Amino acid sequence: MFKTLINLFFPKVCAGCHSFLLSNENVICTLCRHNIPLTNHHLNPENEAFKKFYGRIPVQHTSALVYFHKKGIVQEIIHNLKYKGHEEIGTVLGTWYAEDLKNSAILQTVDEIIPVPLHKRKLRERGYNQVTTFGKALSENLDLAYNDSILFRKVYSKTQSKKNLLGRSDGIDTIFDVTFSEKDHHKHFLLIDDVITTGSTLEACSHALLKIPGAKISVVCMAMAHS
Ligand SMILES: [Zn+2]
Fold first, then answer.
1. So what's the pLDDT on residue 169?
2. How many angstroms is it from 188 CA to the middle of ligand 1?
3. At what angle do helices 88-101 and 132-142 cross, to 10 degrees?
4. What is the pLDDT of residue 1?
5. Residue 24 Cα, ligand 1 centroid: separation in angstroms?
6. pLDDT of 7 above 70
7. For range 166-174, the mean pLDDT
8. What's the CA-to-centroid distance between 221 and ligand 1, angstroms?
9. 11 falls in which pLDDT band (50, 70, 90)?
10. Could you report the per-residue pLDDT of 176-191, keeping only the tens digit for each?
């Protein structure tokens, strides 16, 4: 009800450029969709995102939908998703990416989609995990289970500065942990996140998930940082 009233008085604007959306446009305008730099990782299994994890963690598949540049459209879109409550952006990106990923042979073997978790206190403060709608759209469109209870974050930090946490030598295996039972053994988990930068967060999550006997990991993100 409140949302309907808001839309009535404030026309919807594009999450990338803030121009007014036409009635046939949804969340991101046609021009921004056209201008967003796509990675096309799904067409190349040995892509640059996949190579980020060489020698760090065994991954079956890694890909990101778009490139993230400082001050670019994608930075604006992710900012609106993460800090401005625009969860619908995740739905749009997840639905978009599911179309690209549905023919990926390796993803046919995925059992569950696992979001990079926020600490429960952080989740209370923000009100939502910014990757939830992305993951749920992938889940619906790829017909995969969504599981946000197996992996959890143990450490709270006000900014969740990856540098501070992961820069410590003891950091990597102390941030995330898993809670699982025998039915979770030998599953292929698809970890999802917003932006791949160094890959350290995903690496730390994978370390936790790999405590599960027979676990396999793949990674899908909305964006990948690119200079
Ligand atoms: Zn736009």
1. 47
2. 36
3. 40
4. 61
5. 13
6. no
7. 58
8. 21
9. confident
10. 999 999 999 999 999 9
Q: How far is the CA of 89 from the centre of ligand 1 (A)?
A: 12
95 Cα: distance to centroid of ligand 1 (angstroms): 18
- What distance in angstroms lies between residue 191's CA and the mean position of ligand 1's atoms? 28
Distance 160 CA to ligand 1 centre (A): 29
Q: Distance, CA 74 to ligand 1 centroid (Å)?
A: 10
Q: What is the pTM of this model?
A: 0.90
Ramachandran region, residue 116 (left: φ > 0; alpha: ψ -120 to 50; beta: rest) = beta
Distance 212 CA to ligand 1 centre (A): 43
- The Cα 169–Cα 147 span in angstroms is 29
Ligand 1 geometric centre to CA of 52 (Å): 30
